[in-house]
Amino acid sequence: MKEDIPQKRKKIRVKSNHTLNRKVSISWVITTILLTFVLSVSITVITSSLLGNVAMTVAFLILLSIVFLGIVFDILGIAVTTAAEAPFHAMASNRVPGAVQSIRLIRNAEKVSNFCNDVVGDICGIVSGATGSFIAAQLVTNYSLPSLLTSLFVTGVVSALTVGGKALGKTLAINQCNQFVFGIGKILAIFSPKLKKSRKNHG
């Protein structure tokens, strides 16, 4: 009877961990849904207002910026899931700025990847499609171009830039994953509360 007691305790602990993980995953899903909604609406409103009174050249630049943003976040999402945590531990022990933040990114790779690849990536895809449609409509109106062919051409260009950029980005992200993660880690370190406090104390 005494031997059975530790086993029962083990089962209870395992069960409680599963419950905790389930609560965390559900809360993350809800957070992701709300964040996607807010970002999608915000970016769409900003893009629509910018496109309202701009020249065709500026509209193309906005489109390229949105496509580029999607590619950059796709690179980060892949880099985080590919990067190794071990090299950053020695850097963290030497208090190298960005090392601790890089470790946190890697340990939360699933969430970071979900945010970068799914949330930002999908939003950029939707907004770039809408921007492309606006540009196609403007080309048809201003230059009397065939509606269908113009729409197909613009859609093809946007798709080619997005897919080609992400294909190149994936290669870079896999081969230079630690460098990309460390770069983001250094950016995050600038906004770290502990770093700000230490700067104030030295100042």
Structural class: mainly alpha
What is Rg? 23 Å
Overall form? elongated
What distance lies between the first and last C-alpha atoms, to the nearest angstrom?
65 Å
Helical content, roughly? over 70%
The H-and-E topology, N to C, reads as HHHHHHHH
- Mind summarizing the main beta sheet? none
Output the number of helix runs.
8
Weakly predicted, low-confidence segments: 7-16, 197-203
- What is the mean predicted local confidence, pLDDT? 85
* Strand portion: under 5%
Number of strands: 0
Summed up, the domain count is: 1
Describe the structure.
- The structure is a single chain.
- This protein has eight helices and no strands.
- α3 packs antiparallel against α4 (99-107), α4 crosses α7 (177-190) and α5 runs antiparallel to α6.
- It has helices spanning 4-52, 56-82, 86-93, 99-107, 109-143, 147-175, 177-190, 193-202.
- The termini are far apart.
- It is elongated, with a radius of gyration of 23 Å.
- 89% of the residues lie in helices and 0% in strands.
- With 203 residues, it is mainly α.
- The model is unreliable at 7-16 and 197-203 (pLDDT under 50).
- 25% of the residues are buried.
- It has one domain (4-189).
Question: Short summary of the structure?
Answer:
By secondary structure, the chain is mostly helical. The protein has one domain.
Give me some keywords for this one.
203 residues; mainly alpha
What is the strand and helix layout of this fold?
Elements: H1 4-52, H2 56-82, H3 86-93, H4 99-107, H5 109-143, H6 147-175, H7 177-190, H8 193-202
Helix pairs in contact: 1-5, 2-5, 2-6, 2-7, 3-4, 4-7, 5-6
